[in-house]
Design a protein that fits this description.
2 copies of one chain form a homodimer. Chain A is α+β, with helices and mostly antiparallel strands. Chain A has a single domain, classed as Orthogonal Bundle (Arc Repressor Mutant, subunit A), CATH 1.10.10. In chain A, 31% of the residues lie in helices and 23% in strands. Chain A is built from 4 helices and 6 strands, in the order αβααβββββα. In chain A, the strands form 2 sheets. The first copy, chain A, has a 3-stranded antiparallel sheet. In chain A, β4 and β5 form a beta hairpin. The first copy, chain A, is flat, with a radius of gyration of 18 Å. Chain A starts with 12 loop residues before the first helix and ends with a helix. At the A-B interface, β2 and β6 of A face β2 and β6 of B. The complex binds manganese (II) ion (2 copies) and zinc ion (ZN) (2 copies). The site of one zinc ion has 8 residues of chain A, from α4. One manganese (II) ion (MN) binds next to loops of chain B. Chain A binds a DNA duplex through α3.
Chain lengths: 132, 132
DNA sequence: CCTCAATATGATAATCGTTCTCGGATTGAA
DNA sequence: TTCAATCCGAGAACGATTATCATATTGAGG
C-alpha cells in the first residue's frame, strides 16, 4: 500500500473557506448561515459545511454554542466568549468576557479539557416589560 | 366574562407527574426518557411532556442542558450542576460542583438573569486511549 | 355543588436541523 | 504521473421538537 498511517487530513478550498468565513463573523453562526454566505462566492454543499465544522471542532479550532433554538452555532475557539439567552423570546447576545476564565485542565479523573461554553438564561429587557 | 385576568396556570396530574419523575432522576433527562418512564404508570402524551417541560423552564423550576447530541435535557434548577462532554464519542457526565457559583444578577443592562448552564468540552479517558 | 370559558391533553402530521448514502472528483505521498 | 485514501455534492433519510385540532379537564364565579 502507498500510505499506511491513515486518518490524515487533506487541505481543500472548502475547509479553508469555512474557516475564513467564520473568522470574519462577529459572533457564532449556524451551518446554514455559513452555507448561504459561502454560496454567494462559490458553489458548496451544505453537507460539506457540516463536515468541515465537525472536523474543526474535533481539532479544537472551533467551539460549538447552544442557544436553545435547536441550531448549533460555531465560533473560533481563539475568540471564545459566552452568551445571554432569553427564555421568553429566544433572543441571544454575546457576553464581552468569559465567565470561567480559568478552567481547571482536569475536572474529572482522566478527562482532558479542551474548552467550554456558558449559556446564561434569563429575560431580556423587552420581555420583562411585556410580562410586567 | 367569567375570568378576565388570563394566563392562569392550571394543575394537572400530568404536570405533577413530570415534576416528580424529574426530581427522582439523578441527572438531566430527555423528554423521551421522561415519557417512557411516566407511561409505565399511566398513559400520557409526548406532546404533553414537552409542554410541561417548557412551562417549568419558563417558571424557573427546571433548567435545560445541551450536551450536543441534539436532545435537550432537563433537571431541577434547585439541583443545578454542569456537565463534561466528550467531543469524540459524545459521552457526558455531571460535574460535582457548579463552575460559576456566583453569577452576577446583571451581566448586561436590562437583562434579568435566572440561571445558567456550563458545558465543558474535551476527551474522555476512553477516547484519549483510542486516539493515542 | 353546577356552569362554562379558558386551558390542557393526546394522536398525529408537519417541521426542520442534521446526518447518511453513494457515485464521482480531489488530494498528495510515493 | 499514479492511485488509494479522502473528500465532495445532491438528495434521501432521520429524529427531536412543534403545530394541529377535536375532545377532555380545570376552577372561578354563581
Ligand atoms: Mn458568539
Ligand atoms: Mn445533569
Ligand atoms: Zn426576550
Ligand atoms: Zn469519549
Amino acid at each position: 500500500m502507498r500510505g499506511h498511517v491513515g486518518a490524515r487530513r487533506r487541505n481543500t478550498w472548502q475547509r479553508a473557506a469555512v474557516l475564513q468565513a467564520i473568522s470574519q463573523a462577529p459572533c457564532h453562526i449556524t451551518a446554514e448561515e455559513l452555507h448561504d454566505r459561502l454560496r454567494r462566492t462559490r458553489p458548496i454543499g451544505l453537507a460539506t459545511v457540516y463536515r468541515a465544522l465537525d472536523a474543526f471542532v474535533r481539532d479544537g479550532v472551533l467551539e460549538p454554542a447552544h442557544v436553545g433554538d435547536g441550531k448549533v452555532r460555531y465560533g473560533l475557539a481563539a475568540r471564545h466568549h459566552d452568551h445571554l439567552v432569553c427564555l421568553h423570546c429566544g433572543a441571544w447576545e454575546a457576553l464581552k468576557a468569559c465567565l470561567v476564565p480559568r478552567l481547571p485542565r482536569r475536572l474529572a479523573p482522566g478527562f482532558k479539557v479542551t474548552g467550554h461554553q456558558v449559556e446564561v438564561y434569563g429575560y431580556c429587557a423587552r420581555c420583562q416589560a411585556a410580562t410586567a
